[in-house]
Amino acid sequence: MLFRVGSMRVPGPWAGLRARVAALLSLIVVAGFIFLVPVSVVDAQSAAPNAQKKQKTLIDYVKDGGGIGHTIILCSIIGVSLSITYAFQIRRDVLVPPEVLGQLEQLFEEESYEEAFQVCEANPCFLSSVVAAGLSKLDEGYDAMQAAIAETGDAETTKMNIKISYISLIAAVAPMLGLFGTVSGMISTFDTIAGAEVQPKPSDLAGGISEALVTTYEGLVVAIPMIVLFNVFRNRITGVLLEISGIMEDLMGRFKTPTQAS
C-alpha cells in the first residue's frame, strides 16, 4: 500500500471536473455576498420614508471597515493569490504528467530501469520523485523500494498540505478579524453614548455600528470561499495520491518475490 491511501486509481478528468465545479460555486457565493447584500441594504434604505438620496459606494464601505477591515481585505488578496497559484500547481497533469507516465511505463516494460531513473531526474514532479525513490533501492529488494516510495510520497504530500494550510489559516483568521472589528465598533459606539452629555444623534453612532457590521461582513466574504477552496485542493491531493498509488502498484509489482506476491 502506498502513502497509506490504498491502491485504487481515480480518473483524473473527473477529479478535475469536480474541482472546476466547486471553484465555480465558490465564485458564485462570493459574487452573491459582494453584490446582493449591499443591493438589499440600499433597497431597504430607499424604501424607508426618510431615506437618504445618497447611496453608499463600495469605497465607502471599505472606509467604514477601518484598519481591521483593510487587514481582512489584505487577507483576501493573499488568499486569492495563493488559490490561483495552487490551482495551477496542484493539478493532475502537473503532479502526474501524462508524457512522463507514458515514458516510464514503456521503459518498465522494456526493463530499462536506468533510463527510467534518468527520465525521473530530468522531469521533476510528484510521480517522478516517488518512482526515482523506488528505483534507487532496486538492488535492495521490493521491501526497501516500498519503504523509500512511502517515505518520499509522505514527504511530497506533506509539502502540498503545508501549502494549502495557508488557505485554511486565512479561512480561520478572517472571521476572527471580523469579530474583532465587531467588538471594536461596538466599544466605540458605547463610548460615544457614555461620553455624550445629551442623547447622541444616530449619525454619531453610525461610525462604530458601521465598522462592526462591515468587518463582520468582510470576514465572512473572505472565509466562505477560502473554506470551499481549501476542501477542493485537499480532495484534489487525495485523488492524485490514490491514482499514484495505483500507478506504483502497477510499476513496482513486478519486483515482488513469489512469496510477497502471494
Topology of helices and strands:
Blueprint: H1 12-47, H2 58-64, H3 66-89, H4 92-95, H5 98-109, H6 113-122, H7 126-135, H8 142-195, H9 202-252, H10 258-261
Give a written overview of the molecule.
The structure is a single chain. Residues 3-16 and 31-49 have low confidence and may be disordered. The chain has a domain at 12-41 and 67-97 and 146-255. It is rod-shaped, with a radius of gyration of 27 Å. Helix 1 packs antiparallel against helix 9 (202-252), helix 5 (98-109) runs antiparallel to helix 6 and helix 8 (142-195) packs antiparallel against helix 9. It has 10 helices and no strands. Helix content is 81%, strand content 0%. The longest helix has 54 residues, at 142-195. The chain is mostly helical and 262 residues long.
The share of residues in helices is: over 70%
Largest sheet: none
Give unreliable regions as ranges: 3-16, 31-49
Helix and strand element order: HHHHHHHHHH
Q: Give the integer mean of the pLDDT values.
A: 78
The rounded distance between the terminal residues' Cα atoms is: 15 Å
Structural class: mainly alpha
Strand content: under 5%
Number of distinct beta strands: 0
User: Could you tell me the radius of gyration in angstroms?
Assistant: 27 Å
| Number of helices, counting only DSSP H or I runs of 4 residues or more | 10
Write down the overall geometry: rod-shaped
